[in-house]
Recover the amino acids of this structure.
């Protein structure tokens, strides 16, 4: 269990980091929601704050005065059991509360939390736990903030830059090799006493057949070959639902790619740029990852294969699609009440992604971390690692 | 034809008035589009500016430098023949250009226009005409700005106020009476040489049967009677499409009305308020206007009846639904090219409204003015005047 | 008022005619509903029968036993005030009752009606009226049966023929001329004592400006010119809603037209055939009629112009789109109760068509008849007559 | 590999069985498609026939004349790589080809197949294989025929019976007990040389933790307890997508259940009947299965647990939802070409069901059989077996 002191550090660092991400934004950028999966940045700021107000201050700080009655209604996201909320598709329709107001709300809650930390009160295990979850919850939203900002700016006809130095395409400077893992019984799941989500727990054995996995992520150059070979036109490479997705959305390249007179370019946080062939591919759906693997005559790893093999390769720049559906581990137990809605209720129709990405917050990933998204989504920094 | 001097006055007054309407807004309020018919205020600011740039400066000012290449794409609204444009439903997804940028754009174009006026150039009739249309076009958008702002704030869970003094519910301090108009041949349409839209022209004769029309608009109190008598539940009062609209949208009161513990209240520019029974009803659809008239055993006037009778009653606080569909007058001629898209292309599936409203810009209505909206819309200041 | 004897003749002729229309069908053809506006033929058979059971036998024949409790639920169409009904889009989902059952139901009701006629009872005016409406109601459904059958077969990939002799394209063997009608006050509406619908009543004066109207319907050849001149690609010819309709449905020809290796062909009741250039165009929407007139520099007549001029030209092979929206005449009064739902409740968002068509039942049209459809529909035998 | 003689028997028995299922139908019942997942019975008859024509006769019988050019277009289902096809939602819009025609088509193809069998030709392994797949394919459609017929009749307002003797609710006459399976490495997948689908192959090891599984399926009585305890109203029992499904479809009971004055009844092949409390529950979605298990504090088994434990309990009356997503086994290889579309392309967003049902064709299931459906579907005879 984390100590009160370390938790205070974690809390402070986390709250600041969120605001640093938003620093380059114009006020207008905080407001819009161009697609349902993307939330307005001001909503992220408010929602991560509401979490501490709702689950910590209301319960553990008897002196705390609610900042405003509307917060719960406006900033609750998916906790159905906590009461009414703004429907998700309406988040981008709300001009109020203003950005300035949201920052005040943040400051107020951050200060109240600091007060709680600095008070003489001993923190119960339960209290330590819920604050720790709140910090990791906010770190998750930091990554979403970055990807949502990229969506907001990258789908604007002006294609404005976000900042000068965020590097999305770190080159992998080593040769492609195949790592072989022998068959046998392996252990899966979180084991140490450090923080993890409930969905990583229930460490258990699994049997793996012998497999090989690449030490290197698929590059833009490799994916361009697939495109030029007609990969998007060959129905036999795709799942039935993937094919429907490709045809009804007229998909013919990764997200953010633009075919220009100067060849393929992509939108980055610095604006439109020429594609770097050797950089790891990103912004592709599971359907595209699968079709690419089919075309190569290979496959995606399962999440267990990935977890066992990961010590032998570098990872962390892309969330890597696995073949595994997001399901509970044996003996998985949902937490009671509202916090139990955190992970378990999404365990259907989603695919597990492993690794982490250039947008992942510090200390917010680990070898056992199970990220998950619907198979058609691609605004995250997703990527492909092949197995066979 | 308007003189250059009067036009300069009109232009100056119009440009300033638009900005005064926006003065109470927060930056965030300029950005959102909570429903397709409502445009973000910054879009109105840009679009009315783009009109002068596209149709005046590009053509008549050889020194003019385009402010930015993206304007046409972002701020064109419906002129299909002028080129590609942002689809209407996407207007609220654009955080850029920023509000500050739009104001700069306005200033730049206003100054260039002033330069044109102050130059020694004589203005051709064509040039006078297109600028005059541009001013009236902007006045139309002033009314839309007000109704869109009301929608944006009035559908926000915080129900914020807009300003302190805008009065939406001016009381009619006189008794209800019936004005009788004898049957006969009457003349309809614009006749003077002052400004009007093309859809008012082609002054022509029409035959009216004897009819009676009320000197007073229907009040909130009268409409409440209809509601309490079960008007929203009696299918026989409604058009088939009206009934579908009522049931699928669960409509049971005018727009902006809230049933609270203290009884019926409505959202106004000053926030939530108790309903004034004697004030003229507003924010109802044509379907509701028709059903109310059915329930009273009366009907709505035709637009011709309204135009002939209007000298005998006060009007101007509500756009009054008429029974008339929006169609061309005999001998109506669409203007050539893009400006021809202004009115004619909407002449199907819309109903004519006559009068004007508390939100109508000064000098922007007249007895022959033909406003038009789809029968289900109610975010304008619409109202009911009965005939029989 | 029609006499009991004439009404018996009308009733007998009408009931037989409906069944003759269905004689060439396979059982399967009676069941399907390929689009919401088209009803399964067995539904028409049942619905026209239900009308007599519900509005005549239940009320005027004390000995009548309901054929089956489900009839009202299955065969009520739009009389919201008469009780629950199968939603319109579900009609094609019902395999039961079977076609044989529906024919039994028809026979049973026809016989009971004959018993009523042959009984000694004097028919009240009210009874004569409701039966007469029932007959005209069934004649309306005879036309719908033909157009729905054409839709069902003409949208089947096998393009099967319906019968050998139904001629849809009668050639107009005379030269095109312009008929001039002088300006003045004219009378509009039904005047004789013979049958008409309530929407034709309230004969009243109208003022018409001088106009010219063609003695001839627009031909396939003329419309092909429009198509070849790019009419479907020129946005300036179309209403805004028409343009949306063209682009979102990828419309580029009248309904039932196929571009084949042998040139343009159309589906007819005898299967696919070469287009007859001189035959009158049909199966076009109001939007297309309007765009064609725009392209010609002319316009569509109003329904009043049509009614006044019609004695001077031949009509009856096409329902002719007019510029008039479907609205109540002055002094129009809806009938009380369920029969009042017949016409009045559709008086919004529809366009009036005048004339009649090759599919119109005998004695089912007249110079004052007001047909009406939404502007996008084209499965009826619609056509164009130009005015200027 | 199956012998030619046994295959002939299998083929003959299969073709006859399909037609026996359809014998009680009215012609009208063959035509309709009340919901997209349900196909018209005549489509099943044609599609299973087309399979033999397309994949056997066209390739292996040089004398075979295509029955009709339209078959491929009308009766191809999902083989995207074989050419154009009627879109799935349109199947119920086609009155032609008629039922009589489809039976002729069946007879013609069955005879040609019999000719092939009775000829002197030796059958290659490939030929034996494709015919065997064709038979099993038709057996799958036999089950779909039964469930589609139930849907067509059971959603008709007349609730007609199908036949007198099909028993959907066989009672489990034994006590509920928990079977314990020890942890360890187990083998999964098909091993014998008899027929199986490609998705069962790649027999491989898996590691199972110790678990318990019920010998008995959940009964109607147990599910009624869940309903009466408010299971459908408690958001915490449901997946997020399950909750959306419940609320937007207003689900409050299994499919085919009706709350009547006499209490809960359900539609069966013999019409509406009182619920048998002790019979195994059916027609529930995966979402409902999961929520029920949550409410019990238990869970659904994984497909591997089911396969290992199944020798110790009776199964075969319900397709049992498992917690496992439908994914490829290690070393799964899609067949080449069109037949490769059979199973692999559905391996996303579906859940595995194990067992078999009262509607499953003889010889069409086995312990390794992997059925799969989207988690919201319930027109199959699905059921629940609990694990913990």
């Amino acid at each position: 269990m984390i100590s009160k002191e370390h938790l205070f550090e974690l809390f402070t660092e986390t709250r600041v980091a969120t605001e640093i991400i938003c620093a380059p934004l114009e006020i207008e950028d905080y407001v819009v929601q161009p697609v349902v999966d993307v939330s307005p940045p001001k909503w992220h700021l408010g929602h991560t704050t509401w979490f501490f107000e709702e689950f910590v201050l209301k319960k553990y700080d008897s002196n705390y005065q609610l900042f405003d009655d509307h917060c719960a209604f406006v900033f609750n996201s998916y906790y159905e059991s906590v009461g009414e909320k703004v429907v998700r598709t309406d988040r981008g329709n709300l001009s109020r509360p203003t950005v300035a107001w949201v920052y005040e709300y943040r400051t107020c809650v951050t200060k109240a939390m600091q007060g709680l930390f600095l008070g003489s009160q001993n923190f119960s295990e339960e209290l330590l736990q819920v604050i720790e979850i709140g910090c990791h919850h906010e770190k998750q939203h930091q990554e979403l903030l970055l990807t949502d900002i990229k969506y907001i700016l990258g789908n604007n006809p002006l294609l404005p830059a976000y900042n000068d130095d965020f590097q999305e395409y770190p080159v992998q400077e080593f040769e492609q090799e195949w790592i072989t893992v022998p068959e046998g019984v392996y252990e899966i799941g979180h084991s140490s006493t450090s923080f993890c989500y409930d969905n990583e727990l229930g460490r258990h054995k699994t049997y793996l057949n012998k497999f090989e996995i690449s030490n290197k992520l698929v590059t833009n150059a490799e994916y361009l070959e697939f495109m030029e070979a007609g990969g998007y036109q060959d129905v036999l490479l795709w799942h039935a639902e993937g094919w429907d997705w490709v045809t009804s959305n007229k998909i013919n390249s990764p997200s953010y790619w633009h075919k220009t007179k100067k060849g393929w370019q992509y939108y980055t946080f610095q604006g439109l740029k020429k594609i770097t062939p050797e950089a790891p591919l990103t912004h592709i759906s599971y359907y595209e990852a699968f079709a690419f693997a089919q075309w190569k005559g290979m496959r995606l790893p399962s999440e267990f294969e990935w977890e066992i093999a990961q010590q032998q390769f570098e990872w962390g720049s892309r969330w890597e699609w696995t073949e595994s559906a997001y399901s509970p581990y044996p003996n998985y137990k949902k937490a009671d009440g509202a916090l139990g809605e955190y992970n378990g209720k999404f365990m259907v129709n989603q695919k597990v992604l492993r690794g982490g990405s250039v947008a992942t917050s510090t200390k917010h990933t680990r070898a056992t971390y199970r990220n998950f998204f619907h198979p058609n989504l691609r605004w995250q920094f997703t990527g492909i690692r092949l197995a066979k």
Observations:
- The CA atoms of residues 195 and 201 of chain A lie 11 Å apart.
- Residues 178-383 of chain A form a domain with the paralog of FGE (formylglycine-generating enzyme) fold (CATH 3.90.1580.10).
- The two ends of chain A are 40 Å apart (CA to CA).
